[in-house]
């Protein structure tokens, strides 16, 4: 007999307001895939605004009925009462989450959203690992495992990949903000990795990485070489060696330290010498690709020791050994050096992915596990014939990136194929977000691909969904890509952020509530540090902010003496050629004019000391920038340049809000380089002064800008003053 839903239960509904009936306290909404729900408000329904890490709760209960405009994105958590009336199942809202004050406003698309988030993440990890406000960083005090609140556990274990992930995140936070605390912590971590967890064989010109080390109470170290985890046990998995480079490469990107470059190059040599498949098929065609594991003693990927009857890692390839090179270090290494060997490797890997991973005659998901000859391995370990949703999304994201460098129709077709399929089989259209592992095939009579372990949603898979659809939207401009990018961002920012303790949850339930059991209760673990969350903050700011919404973006570098051969490459990612430009550059706080705006390179002044470089990037068609040049003594100086049109007010808002939130009592707008000021800009300043207590001064205004200010009839603080 069929199962009947004849009991109450709570759940989340994510979607868009279609119509509202305030008199009867209800509204209608549609889910992402167009299914309608009637939502009944009650006397105990509460509403709040989305908040970022570090932001306080903002109640919107009293304003809720007036904010239920058509088209507004909302998340509603409530109770279902099956067969409660003739109309069918009733749904009563208990909590409504709003994503902006206006119907079309999404707070996570504001200029400083992702920047604020990465700062809070960096501070969370630094404060908990090294002490609140720490400015020195001894990585002997670092621990892999952190509790949900960020407290260190009693484990004395340090794992290479987790340190590397943290180092990547800290270097990325510096890249976005220029805070020397983040840079110093990242540099200290990179040096610690090289000194304590890297084996350098200079006779062979290779480097490889220990899995972990254990610190004894007497201060001695016990090195752990082969992996001690799951299907990788007692082998050297390729992906662990890959992720050891993630942190080093990002630190090299900001400092140009030649010692780090040497270790990176020697690790890549190790990949080619021991992991790369240089054999051929019987017909003489090269097999290519990288093996997933090698023997820890012989470095042989075909060693019988890799197939012990329990684990089957002999002569295997997988997504991680092929694709993870691309985002973990290769793209960043190419962006930093411009060397064509890395572009060639990116193209080769993407060719292998497009040739071997599609399996659409059999499944809507890619094939991820292979034997050495690229025949499918559908009985490997826990994965068997199953799919990781995030890996499918990761392929679409990275093929789109590399296509901007080495265009191929196959890359575009494959990425778009994944983008079209994944919302139908990997996304949760009821609640938002992306699932984890699913069966690649449906069984007889089954409508849904079965979820393998659970219906939880991991933070890193949400990242892949956001970045995949953001870059697809930025490059191809399809409204469906924009829709899925926003829905993915909404779920992540609504439910993955721990706004109370800090950091990001490892997993949430399908309904968004955090899952807090076992290792998934942690903020630091074998699988989690700061890599994916910081990568998301940075690239979301690039794809959504810089590319899609044309918001200028500052990047910070700290090149040492002689770094990069004197030429700093500042392209933010692999984006379509000539879509961005350098707008302004500062070196050691002084404006610097020796740069190629279109080539995205800065010629560094000769110096025997490290230099602090700030680069403002903007879309090639951008005509306005707002830059906070100083915040000291309660005074924030913001330099405006170009033409401030009505559609650029958000850029000014981002800088002004950041200054006021940081405690500025006086704001000085320097308008020497501003050639046009739209009345919308004046109205924004007037409204902001009405609601926030600060002194506003404008300097250097002339021409139309001065006339607009004089005609504004605002108080005297808005009258332009002479000079600076």
From TrEMBL:
<dbReference type="InterPro" id="IPR012341">
    <property type="entry name" value="6hp_glycosidase-like_sf"/>
</dbReference>
<dbReference type="InterPro" id="IPR008928">
    <property type="entry name" value="6-hairpin_glycosidase_sf"/>
</dbReference>
<dbReference type="Pfam" id="PF07221">
    <property type="entry name" value="GlcNAc_2-epim"/>
</dbReference>
<dbReference type="InterPro" id="IPR002645">
    <property type="entry name" value="STAS_dom"/>
</dbReference>
<dbReference type="InterPro" id="IPR010819">
    <property type="entry name" value="AGE/CE"/>
</dbReference>
<keyword id="KW-0413">Isomerase</keyword>
<feature type="domain" description="STAS">
    <location>
        <begin position="625"/>
        <end position="724"/>
    </location>
</feature>
<dbReference type="InterPro" id="IPR036513">
    <property type="entry name" value="STAS_dom_sf"/>
</dbReference>
<dbReference type="GO" id="GO:0005975">
    <property type="term" value="P:carbohydrate metabolic process"/>
</dbReference>
<comment type="similarity">
    <text>Belongs to the N-acylglucosamine 2-epimerase family.</text>
</comment>
<protein>
    <recommendedName>
        <fullName>STAS domain-containing protein</fullName>
    </recommendedName>
</protein>
<dbReference type="GO" id="GO:0016853">
    <property type="term" value="F:isomerase activity"/>
</dbReference>
């Amino acid at each position: 007999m069929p199962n009947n839903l004849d009991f109450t239960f709570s759940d989340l509904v994510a979607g868009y307001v279609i119509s509202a009936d305030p008199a009867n306290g209800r509204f209608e909404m549609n889910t992402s895939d167009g299914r309608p729900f009637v939502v009944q408000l009650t006397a105990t329904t509460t509403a709040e605004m989305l908040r970022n890490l570090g932001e306080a709760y903002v109640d919107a209960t009293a304003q809720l009925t007036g904010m239920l405009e058509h088209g507004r994105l909302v998340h509603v958590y409530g109770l279902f009462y099956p067969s409660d009336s003739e109309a069918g199942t009733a749904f009563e809202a208990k909590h409504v989450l709003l994503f902006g004050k206006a119907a079309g406003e999404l707070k996570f698309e504001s200029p400083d959203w992702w920047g604020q988030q990465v700062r809070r993440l960096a501070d969370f990890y630094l404060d908990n690992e090294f002490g609140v406000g720490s400015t020195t960083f001894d990585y002997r005090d670092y621990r892999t495992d952190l509790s949900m609140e960020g407290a260190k556990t009693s484990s004395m274990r340090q794992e290479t990949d987790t340190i590397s992930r943290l180092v990547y995140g800290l270097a990325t936070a510096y890249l976005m903000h220029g805070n020397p605390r983040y840079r110093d912590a990242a540099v200290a971590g990179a040096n610690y990795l090289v000194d304590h967890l890297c084996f350098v064989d200079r006779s062979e010109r290779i480097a490889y990485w220990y899995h972990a080390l254990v610190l004894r109470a007497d201060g001695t170290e016990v090195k752990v070489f082969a992996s001690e985890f799951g299907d990788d046990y007692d082998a050297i998995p390729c992906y662990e060696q890959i992720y050891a480079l993630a942190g080093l490469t990002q630190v090299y990107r900001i400092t140009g330290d030649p010692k780090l470059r040497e270790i990176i190059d020697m690790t890549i040599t190790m990949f080619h010498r021991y992991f790369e498949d240089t054999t051929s098929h019987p017909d003489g065609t090269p097999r290519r690709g990288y093996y997933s594991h090698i023997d820890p003693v012989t470095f042989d990927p075909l060693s019988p020791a890799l197939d012990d009857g329990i684990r089957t890692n002999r002569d295997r390839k997988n997504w991680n050994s092929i694709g993870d090179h691309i985002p973990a270090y290769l793209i960043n290494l190419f962006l930093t050096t411009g060397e064509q060997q890395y572009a060639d490797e990116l193209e080769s890997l993407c060719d292998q992915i497009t040739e071997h991973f599609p399996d659409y005659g059999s499944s809507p998901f890619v094939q991820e596990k292979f034997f050495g000859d690229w025949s499918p391995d559908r009985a490997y370990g826990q994965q068997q014939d199953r799919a990781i949703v995030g890996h499918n999304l990761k392929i679409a994201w990275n093929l789109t990136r590399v296509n901007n460098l080495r265009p191929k129709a196959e890359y575009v077709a494959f990425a778009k194929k994944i983008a079209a399929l994944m919302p139908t089989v990997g996304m949760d259209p009821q609640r938002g977000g992306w699932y984890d592992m699913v069966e690649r095939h449906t069984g007889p009579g089954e409508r849904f691909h079965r979820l393998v372990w659970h219906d939880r949603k991991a933070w890193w898979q949400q990242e892949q969904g956001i970045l995949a659809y953001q870059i697809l939207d930025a490059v191809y401009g399809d409204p469906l890509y924009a829709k899925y990018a926003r829905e993915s961002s909404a779920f992540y920012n609504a439910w993955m952020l721990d706004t109370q303790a800090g950091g990001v949850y490892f997993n949430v339930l399908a309904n968004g509530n955090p899952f807090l059991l076992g290792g998934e209760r942690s903020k630091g673990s074998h699988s989690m540090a700061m890599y994916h969350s910081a990568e998301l903050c940075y690239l979301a700011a690039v794809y959504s902010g810089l590319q899609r919404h044309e918001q200028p973006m500052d990047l910070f570098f700290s090149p040492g003496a002689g770094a990069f051969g004197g030429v700093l490459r500042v392209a933010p990612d692999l984006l379509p050629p000539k879509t961005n430009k350098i707008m302004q550059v500062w070196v050691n706080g002084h404006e610097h004019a020796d740069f190629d705006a279109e080539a995205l390179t800065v010629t560094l002044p000769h110096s025997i000391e490290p230099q602090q470089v700030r680069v403002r990037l903007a879309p090639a068609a951008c005509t306005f920038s707002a830059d906070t040049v100083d915040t000291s003594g309660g005074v924030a100086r913001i330099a405006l340049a170009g033409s401030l049109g009505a559609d650029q007010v958000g850029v000014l808002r981002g800088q002004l809000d950041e200054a006021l939130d940081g405690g500025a009592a006086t704001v000085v707008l320097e308008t020497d380089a501003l050639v046009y000021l739209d009345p919308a800009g004046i109205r924004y300043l007037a409204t902001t002064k009405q609601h926030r207590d600060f002194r506003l001064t404008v300097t250097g205004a002339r021409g139309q800008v001065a006339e607009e200010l004089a005609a504004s009839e605002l108080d005297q603080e808005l009258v332009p003053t002479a000079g600076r």
